[in-house]
Amino acid sequence: MHCLFYIHGTGEEELCSGYLYKSPPATLFKSQKSWKRRFFILKNIKTFCQLEYFESEEKTKSELLGAIDLSVSLMLLRPETHTMWQWVHEHFKCSAASVLFMKVADRDYFFIGENSWEVERWFHALFNALNSRPHRLLDPKDSGGIRDISAPPESEHTDH
């Protein structure tokens, strides 16, 4: 587990890194073989954040496989309400606490960690990295409703 270090002279800060299973594009979603274990690095690069992934930790210096656009419109920890949750649970035999879901500009991603604390670590790192940007997260207390997290919490209205 790696968190928060500076890459000297580049203006880059590594916020989080580690292995996760990444879901494939929707057309290959239900092919378990298409889900790949990748090494991810969440970086803060001057004015933006980037989530890069590699085949392994050893290949982080030479072989970037891709980067995920962090224009997140929805992020769920324990995505039991998602329509694909049952399939993920049945095929990977994982608990909801080990799964993170992100809806980004161009597609949806499921990430599966080794355990719940690993996924919570990623959730908090991503949440903190995105905190300065406008985005929307599912509020579990709102029966599956969506609210802008930059907005103040809804309060009960009382008549005076």
Automatic annotation (TrEMBL):
It comes from Astyanax mexicanus (Blind cave fish). Residues 13-131 form the PH domain. Residues 141-160 are annotated as: Disordered. This is Pleckstrin homology domain containing S1, tandem duplicate 4. InterPro entries: PH-like_dom_sf, PH_domain, PLEKHS1. PROSITE patterns: PH_DOMAIN (PS50003). The lineage of its organism: Eukaryota, Metazoa, Chordata, Craniata, Vertebrata. Pfam families: PH (PF00169). SUPFAM superfamilies: PH domain-like.
